[in-house]
Amino acid sequence: MLYKRGKTWWISFTTPNGQRIRRSAGTTEKAQAEELHDSLKAQAWRQVQLGDRPAYTWDDAGVRWLDEKAHKASLVTDEIFLAWLQDHFRGVPLRDLNRDRIMTVLQIKKTQTSASTANHYMALIRSMLRAAVEWGWLDYPPLLRPYPTPTQRVRWLTPEQAVLLLNELPPHLRDMAAFSLATGLRRSNVTGLEWSQLDLGRKIAWIHADQAKARKPITVPLDDVAISILRAQIGNHPIYVFTYCGKRVTQVNTKAWKKALERAGIENFRWHDLRHTWASWHIQAGTPLNTLQDLGGWHSSEMVRKYAHLSPEHLAQYAQNAGQNLQPAYGTKLSQPHLVEEAKRTVTS
C-alpha cells in the first residue's frame, strides 16, 4: 500500500516469506511511488519464488564493509576512499561493476594523483567485491590488475643527517622526531602517547592493540636517549607526553617541519621515514630481522625484509656453505698466490 508522511509517499507491503517492507518512495508524485512499489513487490516475489538474488548495490556493500571493518586501524583511510568512489558508483548494482567500468574510474584517480594511489583505491574495491562474494551478493569479482609502479627505495637518514635535521627543528618537534628515531614508533603512536603507557623505572612503553596498525599490542623498550626525552616532558601535561603550548600535538607535517628539512638540505623525506631510518640503523647494527619485526610491531616478516639489503654482513657466515664443497680440489691451492696463476694456466691450456 501507499501512504503519505508530509508530502512524501511511503511504501508498505509484506513479501511472500512474511518480511515486512516499509520505506520512503523518495517522491511527492503518486505515480512514481506506485511504479517503485510495484517494482519492489515484483522483485521480492522473484527472490522468494524463483530464488533470484537481490540486486545489491555499491552503496549496500559500502555500508556493510564499514560496519564489519570497524576494527581496522586504517578505517579512516577507507572512509576517505569510499567518499570519492561514491561519486562514481552511487546506486550501481554490484553485478554491473565490471572491469571496464571500474578501470575507467580508477584511470581518473590515476590521472589526478599517481598509479600508486590508484592502486590503493583498486585494492579497496577488490577487497569489497571479494567480500560481496563471501556474503552471497556476487558470483565472482572482476579481475583487476594493478598499474605498474616504480620500485620504491627505502628512504633513511645517516646519523649525521639526522643530527642536522634535529638541530633545525623547533624544540617540540625535535623531541618527537628524536623519540621516533630512538623507538621506531609510528607518528600516531608518538602524538597520542600518554603517561599511562609508560614505566620509566622499567624503561618500557606499550602501545595498546587498538592503537597499533596490526591490532596487536606492542611492548617498546626504551633506551637512554628515549628516557632522557621523556623525563624532559614531565610536568607539561597531565595526560599526553608530547605537547605544544599546553596542548597535545596532533600535526607534525607542518611548515616548521618542511622548513627544517630545507635548511638541513634533506629532500624527499617524510615523517614516516623516521621509522624507516630507525629500522635501517638497527639492521646496520646487526639486529636480526625477526627481532626487528618484534620491536617494530610488524605483522609479517615481509614488511621487514625490505631492510635486509642494508646489512649484507649477516649473509657472510653462510657464503662458504656452497664453496666448501670445492675445497678438496681448489681450496688449498687457491689459498696460495703462486698457485693461483698455475691453476689459471692449467685451465687455459
TrEMBL record:
InterPro entries: CB, DNA_brk_join_enz, Integrase-like_cat_sf, Integrase_catalytic, Integrase_recombinase_N, Tyrosine_recombinase_XerCD. This is Site-specific recombinase, phage integrase family. PROSITE patterns: CB (PS51900), TYR_RECOMBINASE (PS51898). It comes from the Bacteria. The keyword DNA-binding applies. Residues 152-320 form the Tyr recombinase domain. It comes from Acidithiobacillus ferrooxidans (strain ATCC 23270 / DSM 14882 / CIP 104768 / NCIMB 8455). The keyword DNA-binding applies. Keywords: DNA integration, DNA recombination, DNA-binding. GO terms for biological process: DNA integration; DNA recombination. Belongs to the 'phage' integrase family. PANTHER family: PHAGE INTEGRASE-RELATED, PROPHAGE INTEGRASE INTD-RELATED. Residues 56-133 form the Core-binding (CB) domain. One of its GO terms (molecular function) is DNA binding. Pfam families: Phage_integrase (PF00589).
